[in-house]
Design goal:
- The chain has 70 residues and is mostly helical.
- It contains two helices and no strands.
- The chain has one domain.
- It is elongated, with a radius of gyration of 17 Å.
Length: 70
């Protein structure tokens, strides 16, 4: 799978998790829910954003290496 394919899969799976979490929050509304949201869901978004940026950079680097090796 290509880097862009991996990026798309990561983004799609993160979107699915976020949608499931939104549904869960309709039924779980207490201090622990808010803590979970801050601690894990907010961090997940940040980490996925950074990971997708790194995947884009890796894809560009791989293109450059391939072109230099041809």
């Amino acid at each position: 799978m290509s880097m862009s394919g991996n990026k798309g899969r990561l983004t799609g799976l993160t979107r699915e998790i976020s949608l499931e979490w939104e549904e869960t929050k309709n039924h779980w509304r207490d201090a622990r829910s808010a803590e979970f949201d801050r601690k894990y869901m907010d961090e997940l978004s940040d980490h996925v954003s950074r990971a997708t940026l790194v995947l884009e950079q890796l894809e560009e680097l791989l293109k450059k290496v391939r072109s230099e090796c041809e």
